[in-house]
Structures are given as structure tokens and as C-alpha cells.
Amino acid sequence: MKAKIRKIVTVVEETVAEMGRPVDPPTRRAVAAAVIENPFAGRYVEDLAELMDVGEELGALLGERAVAALGIPGEEAESYGKAALVGENGELEHAAAILHPKLGAPLRKVVGKGAALVPSSKKRGGPGAVLDVPLGHKDAAYVRSHFDGIEIQINDAPRGNEIVVAVAVTDSGRPLARVGGLTKTEIKGEDGLR
Amino acid sequence: MPEVAVRKRLVAVEEIFHEGGPPAAEPLKRGAIVTVIRNPFAGRYVEDIAGFMKDLEPLGLNMAGELLAALGGDPSAIEGYGKGAIVGAAGELEHGALWHVPGGYAMREILGDAKAIVPSTKKVGGPGTRLDVPITHVNASYVRSHFDAMEVGVTDAPRADELALVLVMTTGPRIHARVGGLKASEIKGEDGLR
User: Fold this and answer.
1) What H or E segment, with its residue span, contains residue B122?
2) How many CB atoms lie within 10 A of CB A21?
3) What is the pLDDT of residues A85-96, one digit of tens each?
4) A17 and B8 in contact by Cβ < 8 A?
5) Do residues A155 and A128 lie in contact, with contact meaning Cβ atoms separated by under 8 Å?
6) Of B8, B11, B20, which has the smallest distance from its Cβ to A15's Cβ?
7) Which of A8, A12, A16 lies nearest to residue B6, judging by beta carbons?
8) Which of A10, A14, A42, A167 has its CA 20 to 30 A from that of B167?
9) Are the beta carbons of A6 and B155 separated by less than 8 Å?
10) Domains in chain A, start-ordered, CATH in brackets?
């Protein structure tokens, strides 16, 4: 494995009631995050190919961890997202190298299909910084009930020479979603949008 | 006494491979489960609250079982534990103290014959408050390698009229423990201390 992993954190949130109303079935979101060494920390490196390969490894590993934490077959995942938090000695472009070129394909393999863009966010920050991972439906980006996000926060990461890479997967949309728009039952699934 | 009204649950697992030193043969796992419930005493002073401890016992057992499952399901693999509570702003610290008995009892019940007192902490706070939950060895509080802590929190909890109840378990010592003191191999196991 090219990624030098210090730790992996997995979080599952299950909402069973909101405003006193039952959420049935409960909505469940999982996020899996790896704390890795940033091979380019502290210097400018032009060619970021190594981090692109790291992204490919982590798309599979973290996708599998998140789906396993939900305890469902990958095909039953409904939405997904990805994000990276670069420690202070790295560049935002390092996050981009991990997230954008190669992470998506193995993640899509884990969740089956995945016609839609994997929504993403990135930033630089210190240990304990909060990373908000955006979420969207895996097959149709416009499904309004599945626009969401989940927070991940690791108190001792990223250190200056580290990067936190996160993949989030759900088996549901928001609790008590009711603002209309395209529903998951109306998905055509041809273009990744509707 | 009032029913236990659950809004959401969160399970977090950290898997730690190293912290700059030699990777451990077996990665350390730290796990936490948080359940967000309605605080039946929020917003007013209630003298007689102790009966709610009994009501929390089934929840405690359920949480301890879920947490053990998230860490692999083998009670003999659990070496450290701790517990805590975050009380929403319309409650008082004493409401958090209701968790001492049902939280501790539940973990001991699930783990068999754990002898040591379960270390704990509590505070009043708003949504997203982080709690550093102390951890000690399950059979002997003085085992120095197992003094540890895990930070937990839930983005949107506790709301003012809620309680966030926490249990934490670990599968071993700090990843590079090397400051001496009583070792796990030296436990007498008579008094829960040494």
C-alpha cells in the first residue's frame, strides 16, 4: 500500500427521532477517515501522481469501511461524499490530488453503480479541525432528499505532515425530508443528474 | 419515572496503527457509543430524580452490547473502559450523574467480571460540545499503560433539553506506552486497583 496510514476512524450516526417524531426507518450515515502521512509536506513538488494513487487505494478502503459500518451490502448505499483535510505543512492541491483523479472509481465499485458525481470538500487545518463531508445521491445528483453532510473531527489529526481523508456513505436521505424536488423513486439514472 | 426517549445514536471507532513509533503487531482500537435522549428534568429543578437510573439500565446494556459488537464482539479483548455524559443547557450537572450506575453496571455486565471502577467525566454544554472521556484498565485502575482518553461529540447534540450519554472501550494500552508503572501482566485482580 502506498498510503502510510497512522489511524483509521469510523463513525456511524443513526437518527431515530427528530422533533419528537419517529424517523422510521432510522436514517444512517457513516464516515470513514484515514490519517495518512503527506509525502510532500514542507516542500513544493510539481508531480502529485503519488497522492493520486493514494486516493485510489483509499477510495476502496474507506468506502468498504463505511459500508461495513452500516452493515449493508454496498448496492444498498444511497448517497456518498468525500473530503480531505490537509495539515499545515501541505497544500490544498494535495487534497485535490487525492480526491479528484482516482478516488471515485473504486468507491463506485464498492457502492455499485454510482452514476452521480461524488460531492467533495477540502481545506487546510490543524489537529481537531472539523471537516464537513458533503453528501449527494449516488445515482442522481438532483435527488433533493439526499442533499446532506456529515462532520468528522479527529482530535489528534492532522498533524503538520499529515492528511485526513474521509469517505461518507449513507443508507438514507435526511430525517423527515419534506422540501420536494426529485425523489429517489423518480430516478432515471442515465446521466448521473436525474 | 419517565420513558427514555432516544433521538439518535453515534458509534465511533478509532483504529490506531502507530503514532510515529514502531507499528503495533495488533492495532489499538478505541470505541465510543453516544446516545442522545430527552432530559426528562430539563428546564426546572426536580428534587427526586434517582429513579431515572433504573429506567436507564436497559439502554446502558444495549449500548454496551452495541459498542462491544463494534469492537469485534469478544469481551475478553476489551482492556480499558470509561464513561461520560454531556448535559444540555436546560439541565443540571446532577442529571449527568444519573449515568454513573446504569452506565458502569452495563459495561461490567457485558464484560463479565471487570473489577475496576469505571472512570468518568461529565459537563454541561451545547450542541457539538466535545467530551474527553477518561479510560483505565478494566481490572486494575493503576495499570499505567492503560490510562488513556477518547474525545467524543455529536454535531447537533445535546440540544438544551437533551442528555448525551457515553460509553467508551479500548482493546489495549496506549500505542507506544513506555512510562513504566504497574503492568497489565502484574495485576493481582483482588481489589480493582492493582
Assistant:
1) strand B120-124
2) 9
3) 999 999 999 999
4) yes
5) yes
6) B8
7) A16
8) A167
9) no
10) 5-186 (3.30.1330.110)
